[in-house]
Amino acid sequence: MKMLADLKVGKPDGAFIFPGDCNGFMDPDKFDAEVWKPVAENAGMEGTRFHDLRHFFASQLIAQGETAAYVRDQMGHSNIKVTFDNYGHLVPGRGKEASARYEKSMADAKVRHKAQATVSNPLAIDGEEGPEGTVTN
Fold first, then answer.
1. How far is residue 92 from each of residues 79, 88, 95, measured CA to CA in Å?
2. End-to-end CA distance of the chain
3. 31-66 residue pLDDT tens
4. pTM for this one?
5. Residues 93-118: what's their mean pLDDT?
6. What does the alpha-carbon distance between residue 96 and residue 101 come to, in Å, rounded to a whole number?
């Protein structure tokens, strides 16, 4: 960020780092051809798009443990859903957490089921045959 800030030294706050004609917006195609392509080639990153830097930035924020809300704000997303739709797969541990929640819900359901079975037939003994040939668990 310091490097970008240094490029703006001595320029007004609203000035662009890469100004176009008449100091306005630079045409994106002109930027790609005249600014980005030579930079990418000199860095040995042929085929890399300027927009790829945006995704790299977001992925680095997530890898460093920043919150989704912070990533949303930095990326300028309209809502958190946009952030999760684009970068949710990068959030560390999400698969493990989801799997643990699923396993817990299944274990809780089994406990509830056993509790309900015990209440519905309080005289049943596990493994014995009940009325009409049913077996208790």
1. 21, 9, 8
2. 64
3. 899 889 999 999 999 999 999 999 999 999 999 999
4. 0.55
5. 77
6. 9
